[in-house]
Amino acid sequence: MKNDYTQDGPIGMSLQGVTKYFNEVGAANGVDLTVRQGQLVALLGPSGCGKTTTLRLIAGFESVDSGIIEIGGQRVAAPGLHVPPEKRRVGMVFQEYALFPHLNVLDNVRFGLRNAPARGQESARIADVLDLVGLIGLEKRMPHELSGGQQQRVALARALAPDPALILLDEPFSNLDAGLRVRVRAEVQAILRQAGATAVFVTHDQEEALSLVDQVAVMLSGKVQQMATPQELYWQPANREVAEFIGDANFVPGNAYGRHIECEFGTLEAQFSTHGPVDVLIRPESIAISPAPPSDAANRVRSQLFFGHDQLVTVEMANGRMVNVRLGPTYQFAIGQPVAVQVRGLVMAYEKN
Ligand code: ADP
What we know:
By secondary structure, this protein is of the alpha+beta class. The protein has 2 domains: 5-89 and 164-244, 3-Layer(aba) Sandwich (Rossmann fold); 248-351, CATH 2.40.50.140. 22% of the residues lie in helices and 38% in strands. The protein has 8 helices and 19 strands. Strands 7-8-9-3-10-11 form a 6-stranded mixed β-sheet, sandwiched between helices. The chain has a 5-stranded antiparallel β-sheet with strand order 2-1-4-5-6, with helices on one face. Strands 14-18-15-16-17 form a 5-stranded antiparallel β-sheet, with no helix packed on it. Helix 3 crosses helix 4. The radius of gyration is 24 Å and the shape is elongated. The protein binds adenosine-5'-diphosphate (ADP). Residues 22-23, 25, 27, 45, 47-53 line the site of adenosine-5'-diphosphate (ADP).
């Protein structure tokens, strides 16, 4: 379930033009990011794009070279200003959970409250968060007596205990095996929603990002390229780089006349109006194929990847271009089969630079 107020509610956290250099390399290279209160946001990008650096800058483990960071209405970082991590009202959940192995569940969660001002109400708060994450009854267990999913809930309870303005989660599901991951993701999402938490997940896993959050910020080469809902990101990527990073993308050259595009697939309709030479993005889900009579100039099926729930078929067009087509699992095309190719729905067109 998405929160509808999250698109234009009060700001929970913002980064404006944040940079961080390591030996002349801009790990964060002018990062702009606004997260609304109660929003779940994924910072998604390939390895080395600067996600971890950005997370560490937000948490306060690194200081910014330039730019401004605000959390819960408080300015925490700017040139010459560095509020220490424990004063930022940020809760962290690490990839390895970072639980204390010699402390039981209760004491691990209590540790989360070490900097909290409300002394005396600790026990009630701990009981509340343990209830929220569904760990009542397991207070005396040691971390090694818990499953991976339960350990993660302890980490989440510890982060949520002081009622932080922001929760940061660093690749929180990468330690779980594939079967468990989907379930634990849904649990963590439900817990964060119930807590009304504002949260930023760092992940390199597209499926995880698209299925988990309200907004995905795609980071490439030290910059947020686009922040949008999962649907928008997939169907309306801001540029070619984002389109190629998210999912599978077919590109063909074309000419735009407003919303009409002329290309080798005929006349297509674009989502937005442009003019002149363009690159046309056609998602594999937007292409249909059907058997065609054999001919020397036929498009032919060249390969098939069967995934169970669907399949990706590669067609070599008569002009030599390879095109990926996503089909349901029941279609059967033989390798070498001649096919007719048809594009359905609206496409994106990018003006050539
Ligand atoms: P990601 O989390 O997206 O994989 P990082 O933020 O870890 O990316 O790294 C971004 C870039 O900054 C990489 O080129 C990395 O090598 C470099 N980098 C990160 N931290 C340091 C550091 N402490 N010292 C030097 N270079 C670093």
